[in-house]
Amino acid sequence: MSDSSQQPQDPLDTLLAHYSSVSASGSVPSGSSGPEKKKEYGYKDFEAILESTPIFMKETPKDGESNDVLEALRTLVFEGEGDEIATNFKNHGNELHVQKSYSEAIKAYTSGIDSNPKDITLKISLLNNRAQSNLLLKNYRSVLKDTSIIIALYTSKGLISDKALIKSMYRTTISLIALERWKEALDVIQRSQIILLQIPPNEDDEKLWENLKDKVSKGIYKEQERFKKLKEKKILNNSLIKSINSRGLINLKTNNPPDNPTPIHFDLDEIPIKKEEEEDEEEYKSKLENMTSLVFPVFLLYPQYSQSDFISNFQENTSFLDQLNIMFPKSSQSTSKIPFTEWDLKKEYFIDNLVIYVETFEKRLLKVGKELTLREIIYKAKREATNDIKKDGIVLRDGLLSFIVLPKGPVEKKWIEDFKKSRDGK
C-alpha cells in the first residue's frame, strides 16, 4: 500500500493550505524568523484550479458571508501588465455583479482600479461598474466619488462624450436625488441634455431622463415649500413674541413648567394672507403684530375649594363674562341648563355673585371687570417704568395666565386679607 504522503496534492488544496497557514490566524508559523512569503499564483494556476474544481464559484457567498476559497483567490497575483490584470478583475467583478454579490463585485473592481490600468477607457469602465454596484447597495456618496472621477477624466483628458459618460451622469443624478441635493441634480440633468444632443438617446433613455427631471422638479418644489413654511413659522414666532411684549405682560419661565398643549398663538382666523407680489415682509409683520388677536391658555383658580378650570383658547377680544356664561349659572335662582359645580357646596358660584382678581408681577392685586375683554384687562394692568416706579404687568408664567375667582362677601374679604398679609410679610 502506497504512502498517502507521497500522493500529489490538489492545486486548490495547496492554495488553501498555504492561505490558512499564513492568513487564518494572522501569525507566523513556528520556526520561522519572519513572515513567510506568499507563493505567487499565476493566471495559468488560477485556470487549473477552476478546471479541477467544477463547483467553484457556481454560487457566490451572500454579502457579509465569508468564503475561504474566495478569500484565497483574492491573494492571487495575476501575470501580465496592469491593463491585463485590471481586465481580469473587471470580468470577475462583472460575474459577481450578475450573481448580485455586489459587495464582492466592488472589491473586484477596486482591485482592478488599484492595478493602475493605462487604458483610460478600461479605468472609466471599472469606475462606472463600481459606481453601479454601490448604487444598488444605496452607497450614494461612494457612487458620487467614482462618478466625479469619471467626469473629471473626461474634462481633463479632453475625451469625446460617449455613453460611458452618460451612464456616469445618470448614476450621479440618481445619487443626488436620493441625497435630496436637488439643485446639483438639476445641474447634472441640464448638462446631460446638452451631451445627449451629440449622442441621440433611444426612447427608453429619454423616458428615464424625463422621470429623473420630474423627480427633481418635485423635490425642488417640496424644498421651496418647506423653506417657505420655515420662514413663515419664524416670522410668526418673532411677531408673536413682539405682540406679547407690546401688551405689557411679564414673561416668566420656571424650571418645571406644566404641560401646555395649547400655547399662546395668533387667532388663525385673523392671520393675514401674505401677497408676496404686493406686500413686503415688514408690512406683513406689522399686520401680524398690530392687527391680529392673540389666543391665550388661562387658568381660573378657586382658592376657597382648591379647585381650578383651564380655558385652553381664551381669545383676547372676548370677555370673562363670555367664558363664565358657559361655566356657571347666572343666578342662584337660574333656570338655565347649566348646573352648579359639584364642589360648590354652598351654591355660591353663580355669575352675578362672582368677582375676579389678578395679581401683577409687583404684587399689585387688581379687581377685574367681568364685562371687560381679556385684552382690555391686560392693558389696564400694564405699567411702564418711570423714575422710581418699576415696570409692572400681569404675569405670563410658562405661557399661562392665571386669575382668581371668588364669591362676593366674607370669602372674598378674607382671601384679600390673607393675600395682603402674605405679600407684606405680616
Automatic annotation (TrEMBL):
Residues 1-39 are annotated as: Disordered. Residues 20-34 have a biased composition (Low complexity). Coiled coil: none annotated. GO terms for cellular component: cytosol; nucleus. InterPro entries: Csn1/TTC4_wheel, TPR-like_helical_dom_sf. The keyword Repeat applies. One of its GO terms (biological process) is protein folding. SUPFAM superfamilies: TPR-like. Residues 291-419 form the Cns1/TTC4 wheel domain. Transmembrane segments: none annotated. Pfam families: Wheel. GO terms for molecular function: Hsp70 protein binding; Hsp90 protein binding. Keywords: Repeat, TPR repeat. This is Cns1/TTC4 wheel domain-containing protein. It comes from Kwoniella pini CBS 10737.
